[in-house]
Fold this sequence. Notes:
The two termini are about 30 Å apart. The protein has about 300 residues and is of the alpha/beta class. The protein contains 13 helices and 8 strands. It has one domain (about 1-230): TIM Barrel. The chain has an 8-stranded parallel barrel, surrounded by 7 helices. About 45% of the residues lie in helices and about 15% in strands.
Amino acid sequence: MNKFQGTGVALVTPFNADGSVDYNGLKNLINHLIDGGIDYLVSLGTTGETATMTKDEKKKVWAYTAEINNNRLPLVAGIGGNYTLAVAEEIKTFDATGYSAILSVSPYYNKPTQEGIYQHYKHLAEVSPLDLILYNVPGRTMSNMSPETTCRLAHDFKNIIATKEASGSFDQFNQIMRDKPEDFLLISGDDPITLPMIALGASGIISVIANAIPKQFSDMVRQCLAGDFKAAVPAHLSLVEFTRLAFAEGNPAGIKAALKHSGICGDTVRLPLIKASTTLDHAIENELAKLTQLV
C-alpha cells in the first residue's frame, strides 16, 4: 500500500491545436512530474478529459504513458462509468502492463442507491486483475457514496485498497477513518484540503495542481506525512491562490494554462470545455512565476 502514499497526480491529456492527442506533450509532462518528485501517476481520470476520448485514444494513451513511465513510478488507470457491465468489460480487456491499480469513479448520472453502488463495485472487484481505488466525487456524479458503503466495500474486498474522497465532507472523512480496515487508504481528492486530511490520517492526495508545480506540492505533502506541520502550513498557504486560480474556470483549463506557461504542453481542451479566459490566463502566469521563484 506504500506505493500510494504521498502525491499522486491526475495527468492532463495534452492536445495539439487541432484537438489530436499531443504525445510529445504527454512525454514532457510525465518526465516533468517524475523530476519534480511526485510519488505516483494516474492516467485518464477526470482531469485527463476522459469523457471526451474514444476507446482507441484511451488505449493508446494508457500504453504510451506506461512506456514513457517505464516503471519509474507506480501507475494507476482511470476506468469508470455509469453502466456496470460496460465498465467491467473495459477492466477485463485492459492491458495492465506497467499498471498497479485502477481508479474507478462511483457511477454518475444514474443516481444509484447505496446498495446499487455497493453492487457496482462488488462486480468490478470480482473481475479486476488489479487492485481498485474507489473514487467518490458527488459534485460531478450527483450521487454521494456514504462512509458506510465505502467501509463495507473496504472490509468485504481485499482488492479494494483505497478511496479517493472528493466529497469535501470532514464528517464523512472522520467516519471513514474511524471505521475502515487499518490498511485501507483514505486519499484526498481535493487539493485545497490535503493538509487537514493528512492531519486526520489520509495517506496523501491525487492532485490536479501538482501537474504544474510537482516539487512545491509534493514537498508540502511529505512535510505533512512526516508530521512537520510547522513547515507544511506556510507551504500550504503559499499555494492557496494558485489553487484558486487553477479551478476558477473549471478543470483542466486552468492547469493546462499553467502547463503552457511552463513550456510543458499546450492549453487546448476539448469541447464542451474551453480554454482559460485571457484575464485568468495572465493571473495564472503571474502566480506561477511567484511560486517558481520560491523553489
